[in-house]
Amino acid sequence: MQATRRFWATAMVGVVFSLLVLGGAHQTALFGTIGIGTWLLATAWTATQTFQRLGSDLTVEYTVDPPTTQVGSSATATLTVIRPPDVAATPLRVSVSLPPGLQLGPTATPAVTLSPGETAETIVIPIETTVAGEFALPDPVVELADRRGLYTETLAQPADAQVTVLPPEPTVHIGKGGEAYGNAFGEHPTDRPGPGIAVRELRQYLAGEDAMNIDWKSTARLGEPYVRETEGETDRHTALLVDHRAETGQSAGTETPFEYIREAALGITSGASEAADPLSLRTIGDNGITNTIAPGSTPTTYSRVQATLLALSPPGTAPTRGWPQPARELSLGDQIPAESTFAHTLRPYVAATTHRIEGDDSFVTAVQRTRNEFGTGAWFVLITTDANPVQLQESVKIATTGGANVLVLVVPTVLFETEGIETIAETYAAYSEFEELRQTLDAHPRVTALELAPGDRLQSVLSHGRAAQTATESN
Amino acid sequence: MAESDDTGGPQPSERTQLVLRRGRVGIIGLGVTAGLIGLVDGLSGMLVGAVVLGIGLVTPAPVAFGIGVAGLLMSSGLSPVVTALSGVALFSVLLDHDDAPLGDSQFLIRVVIAASGLLLGTGLLLSVWSLQAVTVAVSCVVAFCVYLIHRYERVTLGLVPDQQ
Question: Considering only residues 30 to 59 of chain B, which have any Cβ-Cβ distance to chain A shorter than 8 Å?
């Protein structure tokens, strides 16, 4: 309970009367001291009772709609304040604030004020989202005052209002050679007919088959013995390996390969959740596995995987080992005079490095460890870029060892680079190299290799490249 | 007083015109006090009484009470009986509120309890202590009790963190 200026002014009146008694022995002034003291005690007592009643009887509802939105989309927070009529004699104000990353709309007034006599009010606060993340809104602050203006109190009313702001969804293309591939993830047939629940087909009985498989209702209806074949439904463990090494964050534009990697991983997660398939997650950084989620088919598992993916991000800098040297720096290195201190110092930094990393590659190592852990019973889903094609081929080879099936989603980094790629023709040529790599991976009978790319950018490159090819051929 | 609205609160409104702040009981109490002062002290007393009445009608209760006591102090020749009658009349100003004849009943009870306690204690102490010592004691008791109420309020509302 805080005293206001009015309280202190009143108290000073009492002090003045006390000083008059002390200085002039005026008994009447003592009466003034007693009167002011009585007033302060009674009002303090009354204010305490009022604040206690309001603290227990006040209802504050604070919700955000929608609870999940995207960057750039708006949301609204609704603040409702209700109090009983018997504690409505005092003024009351409830204010809210937003955490960093969220902003109030231009016309927002983030407070509800109840005048004496008012018992309820609701306001809608527009919120603008500029940053992705999960935000817990601070609890509303209730400011109380007694009816005589002598005391105030401030309380925090728990509300537990939260909003999740998702990053903007890029236009994700998943396909082969620019053509969309519509069955990357979802329900999965087992190719193993037999006992099960879902009916696969109704066919005529063949001599020698087990008579217990005959469907007698269909036989009676059709006059000949028929067998109803069902699909054997199984749970497929999806082992998701997501690359978030430094090269996944490299981009000359606003979008990075990692955004597409994450969207694909979220799609895989969604598909596994809908099919109730067991799902595990391994995220791979420059120094190895950064997150591990054991296989599970519970809503908790899927939520954890989703939350981990949303919180994932590549580091700010690229690794120093095995990073391809841009052609410009290589040509500059050749122009440095051979015999000079400058050349001697600079040459190690502009010398061409091999793409093969000596020693352990974190992605290959992670795939190896995951393969050893899950064996051949899992469906491996690798989501990465083509920045290290040799390690990528090695990873796929390890994953398929023993008969496991593998889905590889590869982001062509050429679509995110403009340095060294001066014309669209060069981009198309580099994309063609990527497509060769993808086809090489896809040629394996147990591997499905798909491109994961920004659809509009890819179509632009392909259309220009094919038009150039057509023009060349016609000439 | 800076605030013109007796209720105060988070957003007090500014008023440029005088507002009658006393109810019927308060007006009667001020009238009795002003009348007694005027009767005893003649013309000067009537002037003081008019000032007490005028200011007391439009100012917050503690200000009106303080003005009334100041008026009594300025008056010479008031008998103890007249002083006591004026004091009782001035107490009605503390009880009264501009929107209720005698405030709410609970507040009335609290005022009576507080006044009774302070008056009884003062009377007992005056029999053994000097006026000045009793004044200091009364002031300290009031300050201490207000502080106790403040701490009690914070504890019951859960605003005091647990000591670790």
Answer: none
Q: Give, as one character, the DSSP assignment of residue A57.
A: H
Residue A138: Cβ-neighbour burial (10 angstroms; 0-12, 13-18, 19+): middle
With contact defined as beta carbons under 8 Å apart, do A135 and A165 qualify?
yes
Distance (Å) from the alpha carbon of B99 to chain A's nearest alpha carbon: 11
Inter-chain contact A34–B65, Cβ cutoff 8 Å? no
C-alpha–C-alpha distance, residues A68 and B81, integer Å: 76
Q: Tell me how far CA of residue A270 lies from CA of A12, A276, B65, in angstroms.
A: 69, 10, 74
Give CA–CA dist A475/A406, Å, rounded: 43
Q: Which two tokens stand for residue A277?
A: 């398939």
Give long-range contacts, CB 8 A cutoff, 24+ apart: B43-50: B45/B75, B48/B74, B48/B75
The pTM for the full model equals: 0.55
Query: For residue range A82-118, what is the model confidence (pLDDT) as tens digits?
Result: 999 888 888 899 999 888 888 888 777 788 999 888 9
Report the alpha-carbon distance of residue A423 to residue A432 in Å, rounded: 14
- Among A217, A216, A209, smallest CA distance to A193 is for A209
Sign of the torsion angle spanned by Cα atoms B22, B27, B33, B38: positive
Please give the ipTM for the structure prediction. Answer: 0.79
